[in-house]
Write a structure and sequence with these properties.
This protein is of the alpha/beta class and 870 residues long. The chain contains 28 helices and 24 strands.
Length: 870
């Protein structure tokens, strides 16, 4: 009742104003009462919020959609109100219109070939920016003959490319863009708009749909190279690895806008796992921003992601990457997302593929404006593309362009879509091409003639014919397979070597790092327990020459690299503290919670030590850091799992990128994965980092898999990752119980006068000729064996630690084994079940090296990684 009386006061005020011939906004002309004015305002906001549901964005639909919520009756009006004068400060500065004119104006803005969603945006400045751009959009381009000619040429380029391939390479898979050619218009518009914003680079990711067209007509990959990839004698495996299909390959180029502004464009290689490339692109973009010293505003490098509608709605990694977009350790200044909305996923229609109205609804979680646009309206596509980039540059946030189009061919050119969607494909078959529709519209406007249009079409065909003729010329086979990667993103490396690398540091460097780690600003109140463990105890260890525990060794590795000019990035779930409170890379004031990061205070000229607590994601965060590592190879880039088996959630990134990218695309990475591993009674999900899975993926020296036993070994492995010429992913089974174990420690000399050793022997028995059993092992189980040997005085047993399981240093194992001439009993011992861990990998290799069978000691095979208790 109180609220009713409150609003009655407003209605009374409105009524009094109306009697004097003045509107509620103070302008003369439209006479309204308060209740009627409220309905007028509701009408305006209704179209802003729901106008997109009436927009004609579907090129296959002959009728405009209806929404009863925007009907006269639903909004509280009648037919008799249509000629009534209205106005509102909400729209066109209170311009007086009839209700009919107001509705027509709103329909013109919100219900034609652009449907925009922005009212969900919480920030009023951001929301009003979109509103203003939409409601005041200039339509000058609609009458510009030069613009029309450019657009028609781009359309013809795209269409003739597809039809040319369709004729010349019948039945070949190409995942054509036919039906979605306006994508090229959007991309070219974004390129041309880069000059206005000073953008220097675009980092792109996309799946296979339209990829060849984008490569040819946006990245300008030579047509002769593309056509060669269709040739019968083309063998991608001749390029130095396994190779990949043509519509997965990456590419990089430099393009100039029409005014000469140079933009470097990088298209990331991508497997068939669709959206898996998204976080890789974000990581690469952030790395490029760092290279260009664009870490403050992030306006020089644009991440640009192209999606399919079914994948954008269906793949969870899309939401993970969106969630990452505004996080301090992962933001890239906003991403432009373009969805090629075929309205079908392989054979699955939207009704069976999503529970939301639009495929884009997931993007609302980050307040991204969403522009739905009819792919058959080139001018609308261009307007939306320019608006989207302007938004990104203005606010540093994600924005989505949903190009609603269709897929003229099947999912690929070898399948018949009419088998499952006969009605849809009968309609598509009868639907005119984009060039036909656009040419007809421009002829009607008089901005182009039939002769001009035909000349543009023929010009687009000339390059295709010339390129094909070049490919069909007889030529000698290249002596070097690398030539097939000309213009690509391939990087070739030297062969892997087991040669030792100098990674020790000086006593002076060690002292400087320790002093920095154990010093805090004056007045900074460190928690007493943290001070005791990470300041007092470390100082004591340094003065005594040891013991240095695992986290101390890690800090020395980070610190020494920073002093040498190598930046370090570590990210993962709770990585600042460490899952086991072992790292404490950030100190917190116990009163104010002010933060202090000691490793950023080693030297005034040092690069930064970046350590981030990531969001609760594995796939997106690992993908991001992997992408970062590729484009910033001089940085030590590490991703840490909270527990090793959490990497299960990132298996696609591991399988399709980390393990195989160098073989498929010649794309190396030096990413380091830290996976806590060890059987200590914490249950199945917190025990195993699934060592066996990584080893199963190993071939062609693609990764380094380590299960280390001392802090110094960890220290040298990290430093070797930077100081060695070759770049390989490094997967480390990091310890849990050993983090503070009294035996698993190192001395100062282990850091200042040693190097990484792939195989560790000993401590050896006193007499090698009395040894009758040699036990090979890896990781924590070594200490169990050592303690058992010492407790039972088993002097006839020798222990050999395989610190690096792959690439396996076979010659070193052979050398060690020859030292035990009287031994015929060789054993592999592990803590993991027999069907897990390293056994299946190591057994045939040891048998080959030693020339005899190897016994197994460990848990029996199991369906689960571990039992529920120790």
């Amino acid at each position: 009742a109180a609220w009713a009386a409150f609003f009655e006061g407003f209605e009374l005020g409105f009524a009094k104003s109306g009697k004097n011939g003045v509107t509620a906004n103070g302008q003369a002309g439209a006479v309204t009462d308060g209740a009627f004015q409220t309905k007028v305002d509701a009408l305006i906001n209704g179209y802003r919020a729901l106008g997109h549901t009436k927009a004609s964005v579907d090129p296959l639909s002959d009728t405009q959609p209806e929404n009863p919520l925007l009907g006269l009756e639903a909004l509280g009006f009648s037919e008799s109100d249509l000629e009534r004068k209205v106005s509102s400060t909400l729209f066109k500065d209170g311009q007086a219109l009839t209700l009919k004119e107001l509705i027509a104006a709103l329909e013109h803005i919100y219900c034609r070939t652009i449907g925009v969603e922005f009212m969900h945006i919480l920030n009023p400045e951001t929301r009003n920016w979109v509103l203003s751009r939409i409601e005041n959009r200039s339509e000058a381009a609609c009458q510009d003959a030069a613009v029309h000619r450019d657009l028609l040429y781009w359309i013809y380029e795209s269409e003739t490319f597809e039809s040319f391939l369709h004729r010349k390479y019948v039945g070949s898979k190409r995942f054509s863009l036919e039906g979605g050619e306006s994508l090229i218009l959007a991309l070219t518009t974004i390129l041309e708009t880069c000059e206005k914003h000073g953008l220097k680079e675009i980092v792109m990711g996309m799946s296979h749909r339209g990829r060849l067209n984008v490569l040819a007509n946006f990245l300008n990959k030579p047509l002769s190279v593309i056509f060669n990839e269709f040739s019968d004698d083309y063998a991608p495996e001749h390029t130095g690895g396994s190779g990949d299909v043509k519509y997965h390959l990456g590419y990089q180029t430099a393009r100039n806008t029409r005014n000469g502004h140079k933009v470097d464009i990088y298209l990331a290689a991508n497997p068939s796992h669709l959206e898996a490339v998204d976080p890789i692109v974000e990581g690469k973009a952030r790395a490029r921003q760092r290279v260009l010293e664009d870490t403050a505003e992030r306006k020089k490098v644009l991440p640009l992601l192209l999606h399919g509608d079914a994948a954008f709605a269906g793949q969870g990694i899309v939401a993970e990457v969106l969630n990452m977009s505004q996080l301090p350790g992962y933001r890239t200044g906003g991403t432009v997302h373009i969805i090629v909305n075929n309205q079908i996923g392989f054979t699955t229609l939207p009704a069976d593929a999503r529970s939301t109205l639009y495929c884009t609804d997931v993007a609302k979680m980050v307040d991204a404006p969403i522009f739905h646009v009819n792919g058959d309206d080139p001018l609308a596509v261009v307007a939306v593309a320019e608006m989207a980039l302007d938004f990104r540059q203005q606010f540093g946030r994600d924005v989505v362009i949903d190009i609603v189009c269709y897929r003229r061919q099947g999912h690929n050119e070898g399948e018949e879509p009419a088998f499952t969607q006969p009605n849809l494909y009968a309609k598509i078959k009868a639907h005119p091409s984009l060039s036909e529709k656009f040419k007809k519209e421009m002829l009607a406007l008089g901005t182009i003639t039939e002769e001009e249009a035909e000349g543009i079409r023929k010009a687009a065909i000339v390059d295709l014919d010339n390129a094909l003729a070049e490919v069909r010329k007889p030529k000698e086979k290249p002596e070097n397979g690398k030539s097939a990667f000309i213009g690509s993103i391939a990087v070739f490396q030297k062969e892997y070597s087991h040669d030792a690398i100098e990674t020790s540091i000086s006593d002076k460097t060690l002292e400087k790092i320790v002093q920095t780690l154990t010093t805090t600003p004056e007045g900074f109140r460190v928690l007493p327990k943290v001070k005791n463990v990470f300041i007092d105890r470390r100082l004591k260890a340094w003065k005594a020459g040891g013991p240095y525990d695992w986290a101390f060794g890690e800090a020395l590795a980070f610190g020494s690299l920073l002093l040498e000019g190598t930046p370090v990035r570590l990210s993962g779930q709770d990585s600042r503290r460490g899952t086991f409170s072992q790292r404490m890379s950030v100190y917190y004031d116990e009163v104010t919670r002010d933060r202090y990061i000691p490793l950023n205070h080693l030297d005034s000229k040092q690069p930064s030590f970046c350590v981030y607590n990531s969001m609760l994601s594995e796939a997106a965060v690992l993908g991001f850091d992997y992408g970062y590592s590729m484009d910033y190879p001089s940085m030590l880039c590490l991703w840490e799992a909270q527990f090793g088996d959490f990497s299960n959630g990132a298996q696609v990134i591991i399988d399709q990128f980390i393990a195989s990218a160098e073989s498929k695309w010649q794309r190396p990475s030096s990413i380091v994965m830290l996976l806590p591993h060890g059987y200590e009674g914490q249950g199945p999900e917190h025990s195993s980092a699934r060592l066996e899975r990584f080893l199963q993926l190993c071939a062609e020296d693609n990764m380094q898999i380590c299960n280390l036993t001392t802090p110094a070994q960890y220290f040298h492995a990290l430093r070797r990752q930077i100081h060695r010429e070759i770049r390989k992913p490094l997967i480390i089974m990091t310890p849990k119980a050993l983090l503070r174990a009294e035996q698993a420690v190192s001395t100062a000399e282990d850091f200042t006068n040693a190097q990484f050793r792939e195989i560790l022997e000993g401590p050896a028995p006193k007499k090698a000729d009395t040894v009758d059993r040699v036990i090979f092992c890896s990781g924590k189980v070594y200490y169990d064996l050592l303690n058992h040997r010492e407790a039972n005085k088993l002097d006839s047993v020798a222990l050999v630690r395989v610190e690096q399981l792959y690439p396996l240093h076979e010659k070193e194992i052979e050398r060690i084994a020859k030292g035990y001439k009287n031994t015929k009993n060789f054993v592999w011992c592990q803590e993991e079940p027999q069907n897990m861990g390293a056994w299946s990998f190591i057994q045939p290799r040891l048998r080959k090296i030693l020339g005899q069978e190897i016994a197994y000691a460990g848990r029996v095979a199991s369906a689960s990684p571990a039992v529920g208790a120790l």
